[in-house]
Amino acid sequence: MKCLNIWQENDKMIVVPIISKKTDEAIKDIKNAKMLEADVVELRLDYFKSLTEEDLKLLLNTTNLPKIATCRRKKEGGYFDKEEKERLLLLKKAAMFGADYIDIEYDADFSAFKNIESKIICSYHNFKKTPELDELTEILQKCAVKKPFVVKIVTMAKKDIDNIIILEFLENSKSILSKKIKIVSFCMGEKGILSRILCMQHGSFFTFASLKKGKESASGQINIGLMKDINKLII
User: Fold this and answer.
1) I need a labelling partner for 155 at 20 to 30 A (CA). Which of 54, 188, 219, 226 fits?
2) Is 159 an annotated catalytic residue?
3) Structurally, what CATH architecture does the domain formed by 13-234 represent?
4) Which residues of 31-42 are buried (b: 16+ CB within 10 A; e: fewer)?
5) One of 12, 21, 31, 125 is an active-site residue; which one?
6) Is 125 marked active-site?
7) What is the domain partition of the chain in residue ranges?
8) What is the average pLDDT value for the chain, to the nearest integer?
């Protein structure tokens, strides 16, 4: 049964990924994320070598902050290397035990998540480059057909202009997506930091920030303290 969370969705939220490999460490990090005023925590289930149902329940009931359950495959930069059916089952259990959002790659089997209460994030990651606007728009449309709550498109910045491409893509997506579907997009990498900071100003539903240095789940993440300080200046 889905647990009761006391929170409201905003149009601008900071997500802190939890990448600890042990349950007790992850619980500490979740509590620290709340103390640092994270809006959402992302539970990266692929970081755990083993995770019992009791551990999963414990993680999902540690805080009333909204929680994203993610179990990223190796080809998307994650660590899950078992059968796909096991991965999907783990995510379904996370939904059953109270995850507010389930992150599913755009080419995964969405039929496995029918009749769940959790909101679906349809995600696409490109770790090699930032495609041109036309290609990003095609990916957006493929994701939108699946009718998720959020479409998340994240690319790698190889040059400074990639930040501009993503911010323009965010602006263009407003005329493409139904108002029922939210968009998240930014660039990874050191050259993509600007897009992580400015994406919410251009319509991204949320951005990511690490708990602290060394707790990044992807390259280019700045820590939540710095992200919040910057947001006070620009929002």
Assistant:
1) 226
2) no
3) Alpha-Beta Barrel (3.20)
4) ebbbebebbbbb
5) 125
6) yes
7) 13-234
8) 94
